């Protein structure tokens, strides 16, 4: 099935989900632990309801895999499906940090071909547009195309996880000449590389496909790469939905 004209549906849908998240953010909400000990809030669930309902109405024949619905994780993955993380960065959300995002990706034959990442607090929308370009809209500004920066391998700008830094990540980064190091939460790390605000994002910790699909699609459209540490692109539609360790980087970065 060929899916086109996604921008008209998914851009406002991400903002609607973001508004639902912010409505909870401004209350005295509670977080509870899921079976894997990760936190979940009413904001995650509210955004999930909004996104899934819209996608199932618009594309009733396309499967939807979403973090918050365990039943969607079961069975063999089709060649084409939507991959949703309605609130990526729940730990940041709970701490009242701003680095959380709404994520919607379209996966085709293991590849994230479209991605929409919305950060409600800074009001930044990143996406792969209908014409294949990577785009950014900040607030009410005019949307603009984004591309990765041309990196200086003697002065790389690295971004890494706020919540999941570990010795393996630090060892990996130590192989490079680094001029700037910043931490960011959620799928924003992919987007910082896509906009040219960073050059390299290593992840040597656990992630699921819904954590990475949308940001991966944006970065690829912006001229970047997301590869497994052992080589080859990060693939989607795996039976267990777990990602291997990977590195995301701008074209021109010499991997050590």
Main sheet: strands, sense, barrel: 7 strands, mixed
CATH class of the largest domain: Alpha Beta
Residue runs with pLDDT of under 50 for 5 or more positions: none
**Helix content percent band:** 25-40%
Neighbour order of strands in the largest sheet: 3-4-5-6-7-8-9
The topology string of helices and strands comes to HEEHEEHEEEEEEHEHEHEE
**Overall 3D shape:** globular
CATH structural fold name of the largest domain:
Fructose-1,6-Bisphosphatase, Chain A, domain 1
Number of domains: 2
Mean pLDDT: 94
User: Any idea what the CATH architecture of the largest domain is?
Assistant: 2-Layer Sandwich
E-strand count: 14
What class would the helix/strand composition place it in?
Answer: alpha+beta
Give the radius of gyration.
Answer: 17 Å
SS strand fraction: 25-35%
Question: Any overview of this molecule?
Answer:
The chain folds into 2 domains: 7-144, Fructose-1,6-Bisphosphatase, subunit A, domain 1 (Fructose-1,6-Bisphosphatase, Chain A, domain 1, 2-Layer Sandwich), CATH 3.30.540; 156-250, D-Maltodextrin-Binding Protein, domain 2 (3-Layer(aba) Sandwich). Strands 3-4-5-6-7-8-9 form a 7-stranded mixed beta sheet, with helices on both faces. The chain is α+β, with helices and mostly antiparallel strands. The model has no long low-confidence stretch (mean pLDDT 94). The radius of gyration is 17 Å and the shape is globular. It contains 6 helices and 14 strands.
